[in-house]
Specification:
mainly alpha; globular; Fic-like fold
């Protein structure tokens, strides 16, 4: 069963109910995979983790859950890379993250993960949810534990959607000048992370 194919809208109550349930399961998995990575001493990002995060987010909502998209997509005015480039772009992305793992500030690396996954847009659907979860995975693993807080960063970013999207767009625009600028996204993550950590209960 693919709910979107049956409802033709994301506004249907059945779709929204399953989306919420999937979100809870995705966060449960995220917490588990952070713990597993730390317990096994394997502090790095992998394609398998990213695909699993997408699977939990969109299973039974859309086709190709946990698989790279087999077709072009358009996101508003933005046209992501062609689908046949996604595998190579994702391999390069994961390698870049892991090469920078030790020497890069956690928030800097998390901001890059958040932007780059949204920019590549590797999945049919759930790219934002996957990018926010993957970014938080990086933060927690680099911190050495699941970060405390009643409302965690992925949900705070979702709450601040307008600022979040604007920061992503500014980063995209900076590429025109040939130098990626993630400062606005970095600042937003820092602000929201401070909010999370100051409201642990």
């Amino acid at each position: 069963m693919i709910v979107f194919e049956l409802t033709n809208t994301e506004n249907h109550p059945v779709y929204q109910g399953l989306e919420q349930s999937n979100g809870s399961r995705q966060y449960d998995f995220l917490r588990s995979i952070v713990a597993a990575s730390l317990d096994l001493g394997r502090p790095f990002l992998s394609s398998a983790v990213i695909k699993a995060l997408n699977f939990h987010a969109i299973i039974c909502l859309h086709t190709n859950a946990g698989e790279y998209r087999p077709c072009p997509v358009i996101v508003g005015n933005y046209e992501p890379p062609e689908h046949y480039r996604v595998q190579a772009l994702m391999d390069d992305f994961v390698n870049n993250v892991n090469r920078a793992w030790e020497q890069t500030d956690p928030v800097v690396l998390a901001a890059f993960v958040l932007w780059r996954l949204n920019h590549i847009h590797p999945f049919i659907n759930g790219n934002g949810r996957t990018a926010r979860a993957a970014s938080y995975f990086v933060l927690c693993v680099k911190a050495g534990s699941w970060l405390p807080g009643k409302t965690i960063l992925p949900e705070l970013l979702r709450r601040e959607r307008d600022k979040y999207v604007a920061a992503l767009q500014k980063a995209d625009e900076s590429l025109i000048n040939g130098k990626l600028d993630l400062s606005e996204l970095h600042e937003l993550i820092e602000t929201l992370l401070e909010e999370q950590l100051n409201h642990e209960n």
